[in-house]
Amino acid sequence: MTTILDVPTPAADQAAGVTVSRPRFTATVDRKALLEAANGVAASLPARPVAPVLAGIVLDADGQHLTLSAWDYDLATRDRVRAEVTVPGRLLVHGKLLRDLLKKLDADRVTLAAEGSKLVVHAGLTRYTLQTLPVEDYPPLPATPTGGGWVDAPAMVAAIKRVLVAAARDDTIPMLTGILITGDGKTLTLAGTDRFRLATADLAWTPDDVEAELWTALLPAKALKAVAARWSKAVGDIRLTWQPDAADEVTAEAEARQVLEDLKTRYWDGHPDYIKAQDIANRRTKARLAAERRAGLVGLSFREQHTLTRCLRGEFLRYRSLFPEQNSGAVADTKALLAAVERVGLVANRASPIRMSFEGTTVLVEAGAGDEAQASETVPAAWSGPVPLVTSFNPSFLIDGLKTLGTGFVRFGFTTASKPAVLTGHHHTGDDYDGYRYLMMPLRVPGQAAANPEPEPTGPEQPDSPATDAQQPTEPVASTSTPELA
């Protein structure tokens, strides 16, 4: 609610019969706390707002708190700090300008006060005057969903950072710019892919309803990136809530059911038109049930800091069938292998692969061929395969995967050299998988197949998983380009 004070107008306005209303607002707050809040809220402001008011931050002073909030119809952020509120009120000011001037101030306390249509910022001997924006034109923020659960903040931030590395950077396929979150019992799974690699992270959480059905939420990667940056040092639990966006599916089902009821009065149950309408109604019901398990709006809250984001629409790639139940593996020291790959990778350009030859107790890392610059390095690695294996990877994808593991040891899992390789992190050389998997498609290099005698199959392929996950990869093409996962 906007609080307004009618102030006596100047003589010229009085003579013209004009009444000028001015906002009331006075609050004093700790500068560092206000700057932290302004940083978090301003980070979500759109670079190119579709309306001038969307470049602003709403300041709402009431009781003993000052609340800062912003909303661009897709992403909302809100933060509340303690304040000495002398005059309650609500106004709108340019968000990034407010943040930037708070960075330059060195006073411990800052007083914000409305003077006419301006906001005056007092800090010691410094005084800023900012033009306010029409707060009555600002769109109302949506309500935060209520149902969800709790997840450890450091674990959630770590999972987001590890999965972000595989998310698409461009919006050629919009759904690939998102991170899929799946809630299944007491486990959350985050997944991201750019079609050439895939990263998934499992972590424990405490849902409000342990018996709730599996649900999914496809969140914009940029929103989760901002959350991870904002709460990178948070200690405690994050509240994760969601609500479905099934309005279109509910309407479609109701219309289909109404058509079916109308036909029921005219045709017998076996009539072709009735059977067709019944099939359509059943499919609409199935779509509605699926939509009710798919989030349309997700809220993330840590203490007084809140983020609310709309989910991306569209079906994420099915990915679980890419992970085989059994495979041959090689275990190596993560830091040693990463250092070797980075050294050897200096002679590889974007079109050149990193070649890895696994045999016995070592892996040979090579790059370059012919008249080009060449490099090679041998790293200790325990290879469990029945025969040696030679494969090649995109250098940057391989380096990204090794860097995001964060564990002392890495395991490369293979079925064959031409199938996706799965990197998992381990704190010891034993089987202590920490819930993170990074999958890469190998590059098909001419002449490399001859170096890989086909071993006996080590186990059956995992069957396809539910529609919330991803598709079987196509065979890599005979070139050094990276084949797609699906």
Outline the structure in words.
It is built from nine helices and 27 strands. A hairpin with a 3-residue loop joins strand 13 (187-193) and strand 14 (197-204). It is α+β, with helices and mostly antiparallel strands and 486 residues long. The strands form three sheets. It has a twelve-stranded antiparallel beta sheet. The protein has an eight-stranded antiparallel barrel with strand order 3-6-5-4-7-10-9-8. Strands 1-2 form a two-stranded antiparallel ribbon. It starts with a strand and ends in a 46-residue tail after the last strand. Helix 8 runs antiparallel to helix 9 (395-405). The protein has four domains: 4-137, DNA Polymerase III, Chain A, domain 2 (Roll), CATH 3.10.150; 148-246 and 294-310, DNA Polymerase III, subunit A, domain 2 (DNA Polymerase III, Chain A, domain 2), CATH 3.10.150.10; 247-291; 320-451, DNA Polymerase III, subunit A, domain 2 (DNA Polymerase III, Chain A, domain 2, Roll), CATH 3.10.150.10. Residues 321-427 form the DNA polymerase III beta sliding clamp C-terminal domain. Residues 155-241 form the DNA polymerase III beta sliding clamp central domain. It is found in: Cytoplasm. Residues 446-486 are annotated as: Disordered. Residues 28-142 form the DNA polymerase III beta sliding clamp N-terminal domain.
Summarize the structure.
Helix content is 22%, strand content 35%. The protein has 486 residues and is α+β, with helices and mostly antiparallel strands. A hairpin with a 7-residue loop joins strand 22 and strand 23.
